[in-house]
Amino acid sequence: MNYKTLTIDTSLPAKPRARVMIIYTGGTFGMVRDAEGVLQPFDFSLILEHLPALRNLFLQLTVIAFEEPIDSSDVEPPHWQSIGSIIEKHYDTQDGFVILHGTDTMAYTASALSFMLRGLAKPVVFTGAQLPISESRSDARENLITALEIASAFRDGKARVPEVTVFFDFELIRGCRSKKVESMHFDAFQSENYPPLARAGVTIDYNDTLIQPPGSGPLKVLRKFDQRIAILKLFPGMTEEMVASVLRAPGLKAVILETFGSGNAPTAPWFLRLLKAAIDRGLIILNISQCPGGRVVQGKYETSRGLVEAGVIGGADMTVEAAATKLMLLLGEFGVEEARVLISQPMAGEMTV
Ligand code: ASP
Q1: Is 62 a catalytic residue?
Q2: In the prediction, which pLDDT does 236 show?
Q3: Is residue 179 within 8 Å of residue 321, measured between CB atoms?
Q4: What is the average pLDDT score of the chain?
Q5: What is the tens place of the pLDDT at every residue in 156-215?
Q6: Domain annotation covers residue 350
Q7: How many angstroms is it from 106 CA to the middle of ligand 1?
Q8: Backbone angles phi, psi at 101, to 5 degrees
């Protein structure tokens, strides 16, 4: 990914309180209307004109803007790798990072980065907006200012939130617990199966006991993804032909089965036979619930006992976004045998075991 870099000192003439890097990838956030009213990517060198309140934060900002900002529906693993590499390159000179990203796939990128950044001891805060920064009622301004405040917050001289998070509307959510749940209103994200890490009102109230401790040792970036996975969402009426064609896709290494309720699935013999045959051929099959809340408990009902017998792995309370990015990373970095074991072990606070 090509990008340009610019430095904006919002603190002048005082000394900056902290150094934060903004990585601007695209999405609705950075759109402005040109003279003809057409939405164009925003020129970040004009950020202080749009957001004079930034001066009150006393930050030294370094902005890295993708030369071709993208809608997040076009995001792929190479974009995650680029973000990881930028963070790695500037890790020692920055106190925190804010990633401006389209909301549509933000939960995937935030999950991917949670797993990629091993030993993270600094904040990486994702945010975006439902309305472009140029619109008068835009949520972009509040979201960016609070994200910057969180990325530069210290407690006893250490980063207050040393993990990958999503800040949106008024909540700070662990990145690998985030899910986009709303496309019209400003409260676009929800924290799944874990309380928010902070709420921003008159003050920012941090839930310090829920925040991950900082990683120890130097930052290590895992960056190999194997994309040969599939997500198979179950529905009443699905056919044997459809399930067979997914499970027999050439080169496939793993399948996320999006099941009902607490991890339940049809008991039809053809279905269980296809799953068993796929597992015998070496595929990983991971059970993730379609329910945003709650967890997979295989064997709780008769309708999930067959899955246990076939060798399906229970995905506990992981989101599908976390499960997909974790699987791709584990397969890419460690191969199928290790991934089969590691998928059930928490890596970044994405699951409760
Ligand atoms: N389609 C946009 C994107 O995800 C939506 C947004 O940014 O809110 O890039």
Answers
A1: no
A2: 98
A3: yes
A4: 94
A5: 999 999 999 999 999 999 999 999 999 999 999 999 999 999 999 999 999 999 999 999
A6: no
A7: 9
A8: -145, 145
Residues 237 and 315 in one domain: yes
Residues 212, 258: one domain? no
Residue 298 belongs to domain with CATH number? 3.40.50.40
Q: Which of 104, 127, 179 to mutate to test the pocket of ligand 1 (most atoms within 8 A of CB)?
A: 104
Tally of CB atoms within 10 A around 2: 7
Q: What is the pLDDT of residue 36?
A: 86
The answer on 102 and 204 residing in a single domain is yes
pLDDT at 154: 96
Same domain for 156 and 210? yes
Q: How many helices (H) and strands (E) does the chain have?
A: 8, 21
Structure tokens at 213: 């401790």
Q: How far apart, in whole angstroms, are the C-alpha atoms of residue 123 and residue 102?
A: 19
Mutate which of 25, 28, 31, 100 for ligand 1 pocket (most atoms within 8 A of beta carbon): 28
Q: Domain boundary residue among 221, 241, 272?
A: 221
User: Ligand 1: distance of its center to the CA of 28 in Å?
Assistant: 5
Dihedral pair phi/psi, residue 313, rounded to 5° = -95, 130
Q: What are phi and psi of 221, to 5 degrees?
A: -105, 115
Residues 173 and 208 in one domain: yes
Q: Residues near ligand 1 with C-beta < 6 Å?
A: 26-28, 71-73, 102-104, 128, 130
Residue closest by Cα to atom 8 of ligand 1:
103
Residues 92 and 190 in one domain: yes
Q: Are residues 189 and 336 in the same domain?
A: no
- Give the active site residue among 5, 7, 25, 28: 28
pLDDT digits (tens, 9 = 90+) for 46-70: 888 888 888 888 999 999 999 888 9
Cα 71 to ligand 1 centre (Å) = 6
**CATH code for position 165:** 3.40.50.1170
Residue 145 has pLDDT above 80, yes or no: yes
Ligand 1 atom with minimal separation from the 105 CA: 4
Pick the last residue of a domain from 189, 221, 253. Answer: 221
Spatial contact of 49 and 150, defined as CB atoms under 8 Å apart: no
Q: Compute the distance from residue 294 Cα to the ligand 1 centre, in Å.
A: 28
CB 255 within 8 A of CB 247: yes
Tell me the residue range of the domain where 201 lies: 3-221
Could you tell me if 77 and 159 lie in one domain? yes
pLDDT of residue 197: 98
Work out the pLDDT band at 309, boundaries 50, 70, 90: very high
